[in-house]
Write a sequence for this structure.
């Protein structure tokens, strides 16, 4: 039983990290209807840039992070200017394919700027079991994972405040609701999109740092985007809470499935189990857990 | 001057409904085919045949399959390589388990197996659409490749997971040199391309296009949505399955799950974006472009003396940038450029 809970908690905590990547997707999809396949590449780009600043230029961590934030914001502005603005009014599928192209470009660029080796990223948080939990419940829970979850929680709170309380947030919600109506009342659509991509870049940086500290900063980071997709399908493309709940469900179920079903069928089912789970769920509820109900008219 | 249909009158319905209504097009196509069959196998070097022309034809066939699904029926799929893998493994198994079976029959049966898998994974398309479907087609990709690595019965119990493909022998004639393989692949691809061209002109193809443009409206005017969508998945997967079998038998010479990675799915998606979504010709143009681009980049990188790692990263960047460029400048791809070119030629040299 103890083992079950350990697997469950470990799964939930890694689910939080999936959710972190998924939130980046949701932000952009919600406000611009662009399904951003490049989010994984942005995570990779952000993490590699941060490590690159530390390794190549000898910056300390506290300096490298703001420097990377600047880079990610600039990147967001560039993407809006170069990729999105010429594609305004194109079908959603075109925009989606453009972000696949963008993903390839960023992967190439990141590795061209900072070589393609595996980099170590040391954050000032140790990956050791929490002693108090170990004593009281006899459960091994990593301190690192808990911190990551806390960071994720803070980030979501910040985003919630940004969306609900600020003027920019109001504009963001207006744009999300109806582009043309927002334009008509004088909201600068392109500036809002630029801000959004910049915010998504910063979220990608947080995700990249946490994942990079756990697994090393390497090309495999881009595959995390593929982990975030079933989270999105499950949670719905337009809901931040959906991304978090979806992340928790996917994280927990995939670890449990790997441990309990995996040995029966030869293991390695982590790769497809979340997808099949999400797919089966979609058959019952096609818009995901918290997605907006799709109403179609002719 | 050269490209003018003035004076080409049609007096029968057959003449009016033919695939290429303009004489110059027919002549050009026949000339291309004649060169491809009668000249290239004897002139081209074995390297050119086996490293460029054969993969080009095979990728074109796979792109054709994806184009049927995405370009004509409007169902975006990221699992193309999985269907190719099913075709390859099924063909291998048919030849392995039924030694007397003709290899072409094995290819066709492999394609049918892929079609069945396609129908199974196409079922969700009845409930979900758009991005949800695109993301869930990734399930096909991961699930199929996992099955092929984990279930020994599918791979004949091979330990390494890499199996040597059987030799292609038809009626006692072995297709073992690059020239012979090329001719075989060319004939299969040409035949299937012709079939596809006719299929998309038929009522089936028109029902697909109606579904693509707006599926609710298509249903209202009496198109059976389930049939149209599943048929699109089946036909598309059949094409991909045959392409996968040819990829293993005529190009790689081995059958292995790693050859059918997500990366291959994306490359085939790029082919139809660059070539032209919803165009048969576009599948070929796109495949040619994507096959030739790395070769060209390699030559350039070699000429500039860049190390391989830089060259491969540059390749990724050029790929990505080109995709975005094409989507911005010409969302209908190379096929549309060709069409514009033809329209310009029609008036040349007097543009008004």
């Amino acid at each position: 039983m103890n083992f079950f809970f350990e697997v469950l908690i470990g799964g939930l905590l890694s689910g939080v990290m999936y959710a972190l990547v998924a939130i980046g997707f949701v932000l952009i999809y919600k406000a611009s209807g662009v399904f951003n396949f490049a989010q994984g590449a942005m995570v990779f780009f952000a993490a590699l840039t941060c490590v690159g600043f530390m390794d190549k230029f000898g910056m300390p961590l506290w300096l490298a992070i703001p420097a990377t934030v600047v880079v990610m914001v600039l990147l967001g502005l560039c993407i809006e200017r170069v990729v999105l603005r010429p594609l305004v009014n194109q079908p959603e599928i075109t925009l989606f394919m453009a972000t696949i192209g963008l993903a390839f470009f960023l992967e190439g660029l990141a590795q061209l700027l900072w070589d393609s080796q595996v980099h170590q990223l040391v954050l000032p948080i140790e990956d050791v079991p929490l002693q108090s939990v170990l004593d009281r419940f006899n459960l091994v829970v990593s301190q690192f994972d808990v911190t990551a979850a806390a960071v994720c929680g803070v980030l979501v709170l910040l985003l919630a405040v940004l969306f609900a309380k600020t003027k920019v947030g109001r504009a963001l919600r207006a744009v999300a609701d109806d582009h043309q109506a927002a334009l008509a009342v004088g909201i600068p659509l392109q500036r809002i999109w630029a801000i959004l991509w910049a915010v998504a870049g910063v979220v990608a940086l947080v995700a990249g740092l946490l994942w990079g500290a756990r697994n090393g900063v390497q090309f495999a980071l881009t595959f995390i985007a593929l982990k975030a997709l079933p989270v999105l399908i499950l949670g719905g493309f337009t809901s931040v809470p959906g991304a978090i709940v979806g992340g928790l469900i996917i994280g927990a179920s995939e670890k449990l499935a790997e441990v309990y079903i995996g040995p029966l069928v030869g293991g390695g089912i982590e790769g497809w189990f979340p997808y099949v789970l999400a797919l089966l769920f979609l058959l019952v509820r096609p818009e995901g857990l918290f997605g907006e109900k799709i109403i179609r008219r002719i | 001057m050269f490209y003018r249909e003035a004076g080409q009158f049609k007096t029968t319905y057959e003449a009016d409904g033919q695939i290429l209504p303009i004489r110059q097009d027919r002549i050009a196509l026949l000339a291309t085919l004649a060169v491809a069959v009668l000249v290239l196998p004897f002139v081209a070097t074995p390297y050119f045949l086996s490293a460029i022309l054969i993969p080009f034809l095979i990728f074109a066939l796979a792109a054709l399959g994806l184009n049927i699904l995405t370009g004509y029926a409007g169902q975006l799929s990221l699992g193309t390589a999985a269907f190719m893998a099913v075709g390859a493994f099924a063909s291998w198994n048919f030849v392995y388990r039924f030694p007397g079976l003709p290899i072409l029959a094995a290819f066709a049966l492999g394609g049918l197996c892929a079609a069945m898998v396609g129908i199974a994974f196409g079922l969700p398309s009845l409930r979900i659409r758009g991005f949800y479907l695109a993301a869930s087609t990734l399930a096909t990709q991961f699930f199929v490749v996992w099955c092929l690595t984990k279930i020994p019965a599918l791979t004949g119990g091979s330990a390494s997971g890499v199996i040597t493909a059987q030799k292609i022998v038809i009626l006692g004639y072995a297709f073992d040199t690059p020239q012979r393989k090329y001719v075989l692949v060319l004939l299969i691809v040409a035949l299937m391309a012709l079939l596809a061209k006719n299929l998309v002109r038929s009522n089936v193809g028109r029902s697909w296009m109606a579904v693509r443009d707006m599926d609710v409206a298509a249903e209202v005017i009496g198109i059976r949505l389930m049939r149209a969508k599943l048929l699109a998945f089946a036909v598309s997967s059949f094409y991909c399955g045959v392409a996968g079998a040819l990829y293993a038998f005529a190009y790689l010479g081995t059958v292995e799950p790693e050859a059918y990675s997500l990366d291959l799915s994306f490359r085939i998606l790029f082919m139809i974006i660059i070539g032209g979504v919803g165009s048969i010709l576009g599948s070929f143009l796109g495949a040619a472009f994507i096959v030739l681009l790395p070769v060209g980049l390699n030559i350039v990188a070699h000429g500039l003396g860049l190390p391989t790692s830089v060259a491969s990263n540059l390749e990724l960047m050029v790929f990505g940038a080109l995709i975005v460029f094409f989507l911005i400048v010409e969302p209908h791809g190379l096929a549309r450029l060709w069409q514009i070119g033809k329209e310009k030629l029609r008036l040349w040299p007097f543009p008004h």
In short: Chain A touches chain B through 51 residues (CB under 8 Å). The longest helix of chain A spans residues 2-32.
